[in-house]
Amino acid sequence: MAPYGKSFNKIQPGREGFVRGTRFDPFLRRVYPSEPTNPFRVIFRNITRFMSEVSYYETEQAASEYLLLHYGAPVEVLPYSYGPSTSLNYPVRCVIECLDKGLLSPKARGLDLGCSVGRSSFELARTCHQVNGIDASERYIDIANMLKEKGALTYRRKDEGELFTELVARLPRGIDPDRVTFRPGDAMNLPGDLGQFDVVLGANLIDRLADPRKFLQALPGLLRPGGQLILSSPNTWSQHYTPRKNWLGGLQREGAGQTTLRGLIEELSENFVLVRELDLPFLIREHARKFQWSVAQATIWIRKGRY
Ligand SMILES: C[S@@+](CC[C@H](N)C(=O)[O-])C[C@H]1O[C@@H](n2cnc3c(N)ncnc32)[C@H](O)[C@@H]1O
Prior knowledge:
Layout: H1 6-9, E1 22-25, E2 30-33, H2 39-51, H3 60-71, H4 74-77, H5 90-96, E3 109-113, H6 119-124, E4 130-135, H7 138-150, E5 152-160, E6 163-170, E7 180-184, E8 197-203, H8 212-222, E9 223-233, E10 251-253, E11 256-258, H9 260-268, E12 272-287, E13 290-303
Bound molecules: S-adenosylmethionine (SAM).
The site of S-adenosylmethionine has 19 residues, from loops.
C-alpha cells in the first residue's frame, strides 16, 4: 500500500479521526495541510490532475461524489425535505434489500466487484465472515483501505463552483474491518486465486465494463452452488464505456427491443436461477443544487448445482 503522510497516521480507528488543518487529497492519496505551500507538490498535483482526465473514476470530483454516496449522512447529501430521501444509502440498500442472510453460513465469503470506496463491502461484512472488495481504480482501493485501517478520512464535497465543504467519511459502526480485504483488479480478468464465494455483488458495474459478457461468464466459477449473485444496474449503456456490440441490452435485435434483463437471462440462465427483481433508486449529488437520480434494476440469482 502507498505510504501516507505523518499527519494522516494520526487518525486512529475509533477516535474522531479528523485532523484539523489537514485535508485528504484523492489525487495525492494522502492528507496534507489545507493550504499547500510546497510548489513541487502543486506541480505534481496538476500533472496528476491532467493524467486523471483519462478516466472519470480517477478524478477528485468522482472520488468525492462516491465518498458522499457511500458514507455521507442524509443531511450532507440531501438537505431538501422535498427531495427523494428514500433513494439515499444505495450501497447499503444493495446489501440489505437484496441479500438473503438466512442462506448464509457463519463462514460465508462475499465478493464486491466494482466496490469503489468500499461501503457495500463493509456492509457485506456484517453477515459474511470474509469479504473481498475489488475495483479497477487503485485510488478507490487506497481510499477504502484508508477507511479500513484508520476508521475515518476527510474529503471535500463540492457545493458550488470552487466552494467546498470539508466532510469526514467514517467506517460504519458494528463492522469488523478485518473481515474485509480490498485490492485492485479487473472484473473481466479476475485473478485465479480468489476461490469461491457465497455472495457476489456487482452494483452499477455491468454498464461500465468494456465487455460485460466476459464478466458474466466468470461468475459460475466464482459462486458456490446455492450462492447468491446480486446485480444492480441503471443500464446506462454508452459507447464511452462499452462498445455497442457488447451492450447486453438497450438496442434492437432481430426486429425487437432487447432489454438488459433479457440479455442477463440469456447469459446467466444456464448456471443461475433468477429469484427476484426489484427497483433500487439512488441519488448522486454533483453539487448543492444538482443531483443525478437513477433507478437501478436489481436482479438476484442463485447458483445452480449441488451443495
Ligand atoms: C458506477 S461505479 C459503482 C461503484 C459502486 N459499486 C456503487 O454502487 O457505488 C463503477 C465502479 O466500477 C469500477 N470499475 C470500472 N471498470 C471496472 C473493471 N473492469 N473491473 C473492476 N472495477 C471496475 C469503477 O472504478 C467504479 O468504482
